[in-house]
């Protein structure tokens, strides 16, 4: 896990943690959950994070990611 405090190891199941996170957290890959507040750019296949990291959005999650981004933007006004 990458956080402001540094990199931390995590051995639990992402699906279990994801249900406890606020709606601005989004799973983009089997191994990646991101906080949308720290995304500076979305493309169809990638996200660019505020810290410069570029992460792939797996094919499995692309439609889900796109729909959740749209829903979150609508709810924010």
UniProtKB/TrEMBL annotation:
The family database entries (SMART domains) matched by this protein are listed as: LytTR (SM00850)
Name of a matching Pfam family:
LytTR
Question: Which Gene Ontology MF annotations are present?
Answer: DNA binding
What PROSITE patterns would the database entry show? HTH_LYTTR
Cross-referenced InterPro entries: LytTR_DNA-bd_dom
From which domain of life does this come?
A: Bacteria
- Chain ranges of the HTH LytTR-type domain: 1-71
The molecule here is called: LytTR family transcriptional regulator
Organism (species): Eisenbergiella massiliensis
